[in-house]
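JOB MANIFEST
job_type = single_chain_structure
chain_count = 1
residues = 435
[input]
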Amino acid sequence: MGFLEKQFKLRESGTDVKTEILAGITTFATMAYVLATVPSIMEKAGFGKSGVLTMVIILCALTSTAMGIVTNRPFVLGPGLGSVAVFAVSMLNGEGISPAVATGVIFWEGILFVIISFIGLRDIIVKLIPLSIKISISAGIGLFIALLGFRNAGIIVANAKKNVLAFGDLTSPAAILTVIGLIILLIFEIKRIKGGVILAILLTTAIGIPLGVTKLPTTLFQLPGNPTDMIFNIDIMGALNIKYVPFLFALFIPDFFSTFGTVIGVGAKAGLLDKDGNLPGIEKCFYVDSISTVAGSLFCMPCMTTYLESASGVEAGGKTGLTAVSTSIMFLLMFLITPLALMIPSAATAPTLILMGVKMLGGMRNINYDDQTECIPAFLSVALTIFTNNVANGISAAIIVYVILKLANGKYKEIPKTMYPFAAILCYYFYTLTL
């Protein structure tokens, strides 16, 4: 225990080994849903589900351990569901971008994050992106994720005859199971049950057995899935095409601001902020987070980001990096029971995606709807993301219209100077769509 005390300064932080380990287990319980949701989403893009699970476990364990050791903070990392949806659904399935090129875009997004983190441009970036744009990007991706949940369950399908989205077969076992799972999840959410998400997924999976949706594994133990199709499947140079800039932006903004908001929010809950409301050593958190995204890109894994579920471990008493390391160990233990994780059907994870989408809409309340130069771009960001099934289209339109409306209204001082060349690049992006 002397090593742990020396490494994590437990007494100085007012905690002990038992508390930190229990906090780590608590954090794992609240974010274990990534073991089911991420492989399910990536499978739709052609990746092997067992291989994706292997990479999720390894990367969550390694990056969370790095966060714990480098920063001594109780923060854990995992693949951001928003970036996973953009990568698998919008880029690969929607635009037909190859996995190697799409992963290359993630690599450059991570490099951009690394540069900003190490040069110390964090505060400049926070001020650079207008609030309404930041909020609308998250909201648009939220609806994108929710739609993905409905589609995975077969509740919403594409109606080719009418060229619209419509209800699928609502009597299908998968649709019925999703509805049951959503009701269970919402009840757990309202009751604020700790670990409610993973509990709802497990219960829904169990209910799916008699419905014939959940397929029982033939064995409880097996070797980890082979992720060879994900290892170094990356085209870094091919991603350097101007038409991929909107996707770079779509990945960077949620990754950067999610990390910023999470470390400050969870840090406040843990009592780690100073008298000015700043988190001492926050730059180390950004170092680990940004480098983790670059590392994840080498294995076809969308943006690794600091998870808000870290707050559950803090509520359980976690105050140091030992909490993050304990969570990492729990992830590695999942290798012993991977067949149980792989048996979870899409219908059991769909409710989680739907609820996640709803939560990401919350920030829209902070947009000034009395100012049309703010609310119209925000609306376009959300609407075009959903209507065109493409996050890049929504973001691009929002930024271009934001600049135009601000200039038309004489509010040019509210436009960051760097937005002008960026808007010009996005205009070219739309031009490429017409070729």
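[summary]
The chain has a mean pLDDT of 86.
The first helix runs from residue 2 to 8.
exit_status = 0
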